[in-house]
Amino acid sequence: MRPDAVRLALDAELAAARDRRGGEAPRVLDVGGGSGVLAVPLAAAGCVVTVVEPNPNALATLSRRAEDAGVAGRITAVQADSDALGQVVDGGSADLVVAHGVLEVVDDPKITVAAMVGTLAAGGALSVVVANRTAALLHHAIAGRLAEARTVADDPAGRLPSEQILRRFDTDSLTRLLTDGGLVVELLQGQGVLVDLVPGAVLQQEPGAEQSLAELERRLAGTAPLRDIASRLHAVARRSG
Prior knowledge:
The chain is built from 10 helices and 7 strands. The protein is α/β, with parallel strands linked by helices. Strand 2, helix 3 and strand 3 form a beta-alpha-beta unit.
């Protein structure tokens, strides 16, 4: 199956970075990279990857996964929090900074964005994936949990009191966070526009339905209003100037 819209965007950004570097390996910083779900495939694709992750157990899994994939030599693991990037990563060293599922859980997303911007090389870009507040509201409402939907709608952070997540974003708040951080948002798309809505049983009834749905998902990822109700929002932003 072809990569989803997020991976296609990353591949395009990495190809541009390789061109800027005259064919040399792109340098990727994976913030909150956990056990290497992104880092290992990126290293296998020829990138030099630094993973900054506070959880030592996740880093241990990353090490094993990298060894098994034969890419341990292209991955550097650093145990640190995202707001300490300036202390553990050289400024201006990353062609691409990846922070997927990070801004929802950090203490202060503005500080984290500023720290990530400081690591970007000239022409480099930041890729973020965040939980979508609008999607959460709709999912609660469709399931008949109207009180929870109302809470998500009214809460400034778009969350329920019982949730571990600290905040959700919508397209406006994500764009504002990135632009306030001195970035220009070049791409804003959804991840999980349709695939999180179509029941698995439906896909099993028709041959090729899963592939067709994936293709439709890629086609609609950047199309409003479908983009705006996706389970997750993906943005690629570049430092202005």
